[in-house]
Amino acid sequence: MAAEDNNKDTGQRARGYHQIDIESVISVEEVTRQAQQLGRGISLEQVGDLARNAPYVTIENLNAGYGKMEILHSLNLQVSRKQSLCLIGPNGAGKSTILHSIFGFTNIFGGKILVGEGDDKRDITAMTSSEKLKTAGIAYILQDKSVFPNMTVEENLWMGGYLMDKPQRAKETAEKIFEKYPRLAERRTHQARVLSGGERRLLEISRALVMEPEVLLVDEPSIGLEPRFIDMVFEILDDLQNTEGKTIIMVEQNAKKGLEFADIGYVLVAGEVAIAGPGDELLENPEVGRLFLGG
Q: Which candidate, 230, 242, 268, 215, places its Cα nearest to that of 86?
């Protein structure tokens, strides 16, 4: 009751998801309920239009989850080569489950996951994570704290090529990465534990590049970082997409930053896509702004 009285006195209201500068915060359950009213899913035609009708990664009617629990329900997703897609939504919506499903960390109850274009399109649904990394060109960049702290920066990069037939190939690729990112090269003999938060994230991204993937699954790239490092990480991802031609699918808790970056945005609610559109259009959507952007 006191909280309600305070809200009345100050005139402040809950303004969105992940906001902390207000007296009261909309519960996840309430965000979910209101987000479900944004839309009733997206059509396959709309999915295709957003991917320019030339998808490189395709998810068709996917039902997936953990154990016997289904988290994703008849989910469809398409993103083309050199495109980026950002998944936003409340906690528990299934955003990371999409990344896990693409990479092989979930149980698939129905549907398909395809990678490639034209005659080279492959069904990777039943592949193991190692097969997806080695033969399908899909790399998963985990959330923070996935580096090996007692190994050097150089050794961490070599670990990124653990599936390569010849260890020398990993070392050669690591040298190319050092050429691209002098900041890492300067610290190649340092243990990873001494790196700053931004440097660790750069190392995590770089380690995933050793296998020379075509698709990057990026889980919460900004989590735990200072603003200056967040900008650095998104500049790196922008370069990987637009200079090196990588396809990027990301989950980002900083919805505004994610949608500013991505070509496509999906709002996920209760394992389904409630609304989708170009990232800049979702930024201008007043309901998306109210629930997820604090506006």
A: 268
pLDDT digits (tens, 9 = 90+) for 208-240: 999 999 999 999 999 989 898 999 999 999 999
- What's the pLDDT at 38? 61
CA distance linking residue 226 with residue 103, whole number of Å:
28
**How far is Cα 268 from Cα 228, in angstroms, rounded to an integer?**
28
Domain CATH for 242? 3.40.50.300
Domain housing 97: 2-293
Confidence at residue 288, expressed as pLDDT on a 0 to 100 scale: 87
Helix, strand, or coil here: 213? coil
- Sign of the Cα torsion 211, 246, 85, 157 reads positive
> How many structural domains are present in the chain?
1
The helix, strand and coil proportions of the chain, stated in percent and rounded to the nearest 5, come to 40, 25, 35
- Number of other residues whose CB lies within 10 A of the CB of residue 182: 9
Q: What distance in Å separates the CA atoms of residue 32 and residue 70, rounded to the nearest whole number?
A: 17
Residues of the chain short of pLDDT 50, as ranges, are 1-24
DSSP state letter for 146: -
The answer to whether the beta carbons of residues 169 and 161 sit under 8 Å apart is yes
